[in-house]
């Protein structure tokens, strides 16, 4: 009997029920929204071949996804449309069902399912959904982890303090897990003609039928969703910008970054495939490749570790004790200026650099990471209290970034307040939490060129909506 080539440490059994007699193996796709380099999909294909069954892929579309708005849905649906086409070319049908409760939406399909396979999500609601479905599922249910390089539980059994503590734990397992995903050919093609599914060829029609927040427009002027778009951007980055990554990654006036965080958030590209592409690239020095892989693997998986092991990952209480204590001691310090949330959201502060960062986020759904740090630190400085600053940052982050509501985002907001960082010199307002100043931007990058770049992007966005 053929042995599956997917590492068993990527696979978790979610209940104690056996494989049952059924008509298909069901892959419930949620996090890994792609048809290639997807361990959950390949696991489903392998077992379907072994059971002489077809694979049925289903995606549950809910308009009650926490904090998601039109911007997020447009990008995701663009990706799902591409994924459905790529699955069809592999002779696999995909069904998109609207439903607010995945357990109820899947129940009719599970009656005829021999084996349920799902991918792995790390946020609170993702884990709750999978737990509820697997507990009510009449057949065996497997979860396959394909959106980190090293599985979270393999890396560490607890929340790690910082990159320096998780780095050696990841590197201990890195070569074992940094291998291409196997690809299986379905022996029995699935027929989706009889399935009731939302029509991904009509994204506008789907959006019209959803109860969404339309106050944040789509950001398609610069970014379009989809695995094919992700692969195109990756190849462009490797060919033209990877060789400048170390030199320019903290230069926001340039575009020498990959923009992969958007596609990783929706599972439209595999972090393993991405890491292998960078490691095997013929462009760039080893320093460029290593610097990128540090961000992709160590820093990103530190964020996943944080969300997975921290129940209050989206609350001020998630911050390390030293940071909470230091910020509390300086909570009453006089602020040189205070802005309310509405003023910040409108980008109407006295700081042209901060306003440009806010404009980039509003216009494109993205902000250069170096500016994200400065953007966050200034909200802390300009808010009446650290708690209010945290709440405002998380609100703006999740509302405007295409890759908001992501472990990287929750950890990134936390970092502004000391998470995964160390204590620095004592100062007003910040206490021992790291500080950033406009003079640092002026010294370390061409910040005026960044402001001009964002102004051009904003004009482009305005024209696209007019």
UniProtKB/TrEMBL annotation:
Its EC number is 4.1.99.3. It holds the Pfam family DNA_photolyase. Gene3D superfamilies: 1.25.40.80, DNA Cyclobutane Dipyrimidine Photolyase, subunit A, domain 3 (1.10.579.10), HUPs (3.40.50.620). InterPro entries: Crypto/Photolyase_FAD-like_sf (IPR036134), Crypto/Photolyase_N_sf (IPR036155), DNA_photolyase_N (IPR006050), Photolyase_Class-2 (IPR052219), Rossmann-like_a/b/a_fold (IPR014729). The keyword Lyase applies. GO terms for biological process: photoreactive repair. Signal peptide: none annotated. Its cofactor is FAD; (6R)-5,10-methylene-5,6,7,8-tetrahydrofolate. Keywords: DNA damage, DNA repair, DNA-binding, FAD, Flavoprotein, Lyase. It is an enzyme of class 4 (lyase). Residues 23-152 form the Photolyase/cryptochrome alpha/beta domain. GO terms for molecular function: deoxyribodipyrimidine photo-lyase activity; DNA binding. It catalyses: cyclobutadipyrimidine (in DNA) = 2 pyrimidine residues (in DNA). SUPFAM superfamilies: Cryptochrome/photolyase FAD-binding domain, Cryptochrome/photolyase, N-terminal domain. Belongs to the DNA photolyase class-2 family. PANTHER family: DEOXYRIBODIPYRIMIDINE PHOTO-LYASE, DEOXYRIBODIPYRIMIDINE PHOTOLYASE. This is Deoxyribodipyrimidine photo-lyase. It comes from Desulfosarcina widdelii.
